[in-house]
DNA sequence: GAGCGTTTTTATACACGTAAGAAAAGTTAG
DNA sequence: CTAACTTTTCTTACGTGTATAAAAACGCTC
């Protein structure tokens, strides 16, 4: 790891590559060829270096992906107009983040970070926590509320993205259909009732509905 | 893939290993040595075979993990006493699943399945959907409600488990602390206000609170 | 300029998941 | 018995992330 504030001007061998250059090249590879094609070797050759040289600027591939996510967030997250109604403010902030993340599905492997801690995302966290406080929650409960919203949001994206990946990869969907076709209406009547509609129902985008329900519930709990 | 209903008695070379034996051995390895130590090579040698032989019984490692999760669910998920109040029924069903999954954190990589479709888990899905319907939701909205609950539940587990893994792996937590220490109280007042309490606050287990809020919100939405 | 300390880069190597195809071990038809 | 056919297993090989240690490139001091 390079020290941001070195005591001397330059000490030791001068670097030929930088963290910024790595992220930049990685971003180009991802946008041009997809995240699957982003390998440490390819990244190294495209940047004109060797694979192991990257590891002096990045701890491992996962950190590189986190950095890419941060970069993406900083680059595309634009602060929307914020409504005065605090409840709507929460919804807008969460929806904006969700929208941005859902638009780049390759982040799934990184999204399991326990928070979005990109500096550019913090503003959205602030909006959510502040909205919850303004609606009467204590600061502590507001943080918990934000966490619940984050769990819901991250879960939605991860689950949806993984399902899409599996669907593209093979036909395991067939297995699920089989399970639903073989349901015993006596044991699981409700599921049998909706069995044939399950696929289209779960394909619908109901993020906003669930989010509103969650926010409503968080605000009415005393 | 072995055909469950072969036309003839046995045709072709008789198998030396079976899917069940693979799962059994894999389970033993995971419980004894952890999921990290479960490699196709080790599994093969411990079962007395070769890595590629496994691939005639299992599509890939991910499917093996899904099968392991199914096996785990079937083995440990016990149906709890179900309250008569439908709202409580939903909460109990979701909490039971959450508890079981949270107890075996290695599933994180699999948990991104878009549903828990283990047969033994379907009963819990039924309880949730049925509870929502009994509270007045249409079947379609009940399915959406179940999905919201699943997003929240899966998100909570994935986020928490990943955070724990990172914490054990290295000191990226320090980075987060740094972010919170450097907060500008003018720009992000609420976050600055709770900055020093953020770590303990987010460490608390508030799954049940969030779940109740979500269920309440789902049921009061018309 | 020779050695030294520091930092970055490179070379080599290992374990992993798994693709591709050859080999093996049965049953059945002639 | 032999040959064809089927299913499972084994051999070999590739690309991956990355650990380890050696090498290289700089400023510094004597």
Overview of the structural elements:
The structure is a homodimer of 222-residue chains. With 222 residues, chain A is mainly alpha-helical. Chain A has two domains: 58 residues, Homeodomain-like (Arc Repressor Mutant, subunit A), CATH 1.10.10.60; 141 residues, Tetracycline Repressor, domain 2. In chain A, 35% of the residues are buried. Chains A and B meet through helix 6, helix 7, helix 8, helix 9 and helix 10 of A and helix 7, helix 8, helix 9, helix 10 and helix 11 of B. The first copy, chain A, binds a DNA duplex (30 and 30 nucleotides) through helix 3.
| Number of individual domains of chain A | 2
Q: Would you tell me the overall average pLDDT of chain A?
A: 89
Distance between the termini of chain A: 47 Å
Largest interface (CB within 8 Å) is between: A-B, 68 and 68 residues
Shape of chain A: flat
Please give the count of helices of chain A.
11
Radius of gyration of chain A using CA atoms only: 22 Å
- For this structure, what is the CATH class of the largest domain in chain A? Mainly Alpha
Q: What amount of the residues of chain A lies in strands?
A: under 5%
Largest sheet of chain A: none
User: How would you describe the oligomerization state of the chains in this entry?
Assistant: homodimer
Q: Which topology of the largest domain in chain A does CATH recognise? A: Tetracycline Repressor, domain 2
CATH-level-2 architecture of the largest domain in chain A:
Orthogonal Bundle
Helix content of chain A: 55-70%
Helix/strand order of chain A, N-terminal first:
HHHHHHHHHHH
Task: Label the structural class of chain A.
Answer: mainly alpha
CATH homologous superfamily descriptor of the largest domain in chain A: Tetracycline Repressor, domain 2
Per DSSP E runs of 2 or more residues, the count of β-strands of chain A stands at 0
pLDDT < 50 stretches of chain A: 3-7
């Amino acid at each position: 790891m390079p020290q941001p504030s070195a005591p001397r001007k330059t000490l030791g061998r001068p670097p030929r590559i930088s963290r910024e250059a790595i992220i930049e090249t990685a971003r180009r590879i991802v946008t041009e060829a997809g995240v699957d094609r982003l390998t440490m070797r390819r990244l190294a050759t495209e940047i004109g270096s060797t694979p192991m040289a990257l590891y002096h600027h990045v701890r491992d591939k996962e950190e590189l992906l986190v950095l890419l996510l941060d970069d993406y967030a900083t680059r595309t997250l634009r602060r929307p107009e914020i409504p005065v109604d605090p409840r709507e403010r929460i919804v807008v902030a969460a929806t904006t983040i969700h929208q941005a993340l859902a638009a780049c599905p390759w982040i799934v492997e990184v999204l399991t970070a326990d928070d979005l801690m990109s500096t550019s995302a913090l503003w959205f966290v602030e909006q959510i926590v502040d909205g919850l406080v303004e609606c009467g929650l204590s600061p502590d409960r507001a943080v918990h509320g934000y966490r619940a919203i984050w769990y819901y949001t991250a879960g939605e994206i991860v689950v949806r993205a993984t399902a899409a990946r599996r669907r593209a990869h093979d036909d395991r969907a067939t297995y699920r259909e089989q399970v639903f076709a073989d349901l015993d209406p006596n044991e699981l009547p409700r599921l049998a009732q909706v069995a044939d509609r399950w696929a289209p129902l779960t394909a619908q985008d109901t993020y906003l509905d669930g989010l509103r329900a969650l926010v409503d519930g968080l605000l009415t709990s005393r």
